[in-house]
Amino acid sequence: MPKVSVIMPVYNCEPYLAEAIESILGQTLADMEFIIIDDGSTDRSFETIRRYARRDARIRAISRENRGIVRTRNEGLELARGEYLAIMDGDDVSLPDRLLRQAEYLDTHDDCLIVTCRMELTDPQGDPLLIINQETTHEEIDAAHLALNSFTVTGGYMARLEAVRAVGGYDERVALAEDRDLFLRLAERGKVACIPEVLYRYRQHVRSSCHSRDVRLRSDVEAVIAAAWARRGLPGEPPVFPPDAGGPTDSNGIHRKWGWWALKAGHVRTARKHALLSLRNHFFSWDSWRLLVCALRGH
Fold this sequence. Notes:
The protein is an alpha/beta fold. It contains twelve helices and nine strands. It folds into two domains: 4-232, Spore Coat Polysaccharide Biosynthesis Protein SpsA, Chain A (Alpha-Beta Complex); 251-297, no CATH class. Strands 1, 2, 3, 4, 5, 6, 7, 8 and 9 form a nine-stranded mixed beta sheet that branches. Helix 2 (45-55) links the parallel strand 2 and strand 3 (59-64). Helix 1 packs parallel to helix 2, helix 5 (138-146) crosses helix 7 and helix 11 (268-279) packs antiparallel against helix 12. The model has no long low-confidence stretch (mean pLDDT 93).
């Protein structure tokens, strides 16, 4: 039985997939199995997966028709044999000590069921934007999940496999908030935690689900919070997003948002890049020019 089962659903991740796979195969914790499920990709993702599977016997490569990321994760959950379950996405990067640090944390904290880490959001090219998951204690993380904090968890975590199975795995009804839902349900049975180190790089995309399905995302988050509110018998009403909630969904607005994130985090070069990209199709946009001026000044 391996120490860790790493589950990675893949759907059309060809440009980033080799880097994602290599970041797991190069981990300092080698006692693992790597379950990679190609979820009906229409690009050459599965060819990449098969190439790595021929090189490393720890990889279990599966390909079948598209079923969605949450159902794919549950399929991986059924196949997993490890003591711990680690989540990996096909376009992200795990830093070399990620699995070791998370496994050591669970080994030494018997009351903890799931642990995440600080994560660096990057743009599609891997340039840094900002660091998320600032909460570290059980109480801070659980409170953030019960509120409408959008920058908590999002992936890159490790959990006790049997604990995840005991709560029924991932809820396919909330496909854009399944991680938050899992953390909330596990927090009702044990502790949740965050290692205050950046061990994971979480890649953002202009056409990612969080942008293209913004309304569904807010709906799923609200449903997850309301369910936890009811299970716990909390007083009052669960929070909901205001009617005008939601960030930009057009590419120029997204580049401006990324530019401000990067500038506030001190990543001036990245901020300048996205300021110029936001001006590409909106040359007369005052908001884009304001970002560029601030980025050129460096603050």
